[in-house]
Amino acid sequence: MQEKLHALKEEALTKVAQAEDLKALEAVRVGYLGKKGPMTEVLRGMGKLSPEERPVVGELANKVREAITTALEEKKQRFEADVLNTQLKTETIDVTLPGRPVNLGGPHLLTSIVTEIEDLFIGMGFDIKEGPEVETDYYNFEALNLPKDHPARDMQDSFYITEELLLRTHTSPVQARTMGEYRGNKPVKMICPGKVYRRDTDDATHSHQFTQVEGLYVDKNVRMSDLKGVLNQFAKQFFGEEREIRLRPSFFPFTEPSVEMDISCKVCHGKGCSVCKQTGWIEILGGGMVHPDVLKMAGYDPEIYSGFAFGMGPERIAMLKYGVDDIRHFYTNDQRFLTQYHKA
Ligand code: 2NL
């Protein structure tokens, strides 16, 4: 019996040594240690042994089983290590590969420009006000000294919804509404940014929908020099300290006197170039002293109160600041255009 166990051990260990993969190893385990294997058979035959022999054979059988189990386990671990090593060798990951880009959104160029304008005027004590884009004929025209049949209504061909309702052609009605709210006894210092609409054929410099930022300051003793000071401050902060401004006489139905403001050309420093059309100056905005009739209609006594107002187009300003050559870029939403103005 003991000889048979020794022989079994040698045989099993040789088979383990010869096994070439995990499957072969498992076959050896089942073959020698399994229920139908020779080890089980030996243990079953123990009952026929004498009481002296039994513990000796039992101990040997345990040792043999242990030796085979250990050999199987060691070989199994070696196979598993081999599998892992080949996997590590063949399935390498290049950690230096650049990652996939994550496309982050950002504010539209116009949004950034309007926010910047807002911040500059907030810094000078102006409030931000908004109002409806569908406006009444009264607030869009009448309250701004543009009565029915006024020739200036032709200047701004409008989108009418009904006889009395239209898409606002400027943001001025927001200011007329605010003055009306304050009932003629409180100063107004506000800017109103927003979308406006004109019946125009779209091309590189015209759009049927664009943005406007208007400003209004009504109080006692507001003068033209206050307008010039505020606009000069704005121009220098927005375009650069080295820029000069000039005011030229102009006409608007809602201001008297009216002006247009130019800034000195950065490209030629006033000598004349294609950007400033050989004049050395670039037109930026229009403004003036609020017409006494506009103040009166809003409930302010023009003998006590005076005010200045101005209006600018952020598209035009963005085009000048960044050299954008077509106003339609702001609305066609080509990502190649939009992402150029996203901050890193
Ligand atoms: C321009 C010129 C201007 C105003 C807007 C205004 C508003 C009220 C009273 C008086 Cl409530 N005036 N606004 C005045 C002059 C010019 O805009 O070229 N905008 C793009």
Automatic annotation (TrEMBL):
* Cofactor(s) of this protein: Mg(2+)
Aminoacyl-transfer RNA synthetases class-II family profile domain ranges (all copies): 109-320
Assembly and partners are described as:
Tetramer of two alpha and two beta subunits.
GO function term, MF aspect, one:
transferase activity
Q: Gene Ontology cellular component?
A: cytoplasm
Q: What is this protein called?
A: Phenylalanine--tRNA ligase alpha subunit
This entry's Enzyme Commission designation comes to 6.1.1.20
- What is the cofactor note? Binds 2 magnesium ions per tetramer.
Task: Identify the PROSITE patterns for this entry.
Answer: AA_TRNA_LIGASE_II
Q: Which UniProt keywords apply?
A: Aminoacyl-tRNA synthetase, ATP-binding, Cytoplasm, Ligase, Magnesium, Metal-binding, Nucleotide-binding, Protein biosynthesis
Q: Which organism is it from?
A: Halolactibacillus alkaliphilus
InterPro entries assigned: aa-tRNA-synth_II, aa-tRNA-synth_II/BPL/LPL, Phe-tRNA-synth_IIc_asu, Phe-tRNA_ligase_II_N, Phe_tRNA_ligase_alpha1_bac, Phenylalanyl-tRNA_Synthase, tRNA-bd_arm
Catalysed conversion reaction: tRNA(Phe) + L-phenylalanine + ATP = L-phenylalanyl-tRNA(Phe) + AMP + diphosphate + H(+)
Compartments (UniProt record) = Cytoplasm
Q: Which PANTHER family match?
A: PHENYLALANINE--TRNA LIGASE, MITOCHONDRIAL (PTHR11538:SF41), PHENYLALANYL-TRNA SYNTHETASE (PTHR11538)
Which chain positions lie within coiled-coil regions? Answer: none
The family annotation for this protein states: Belongs to the class-II aminoacyl-tRNA synthetase family. Phe-tRNA synthetase alpha subunit type 1 subfamily.
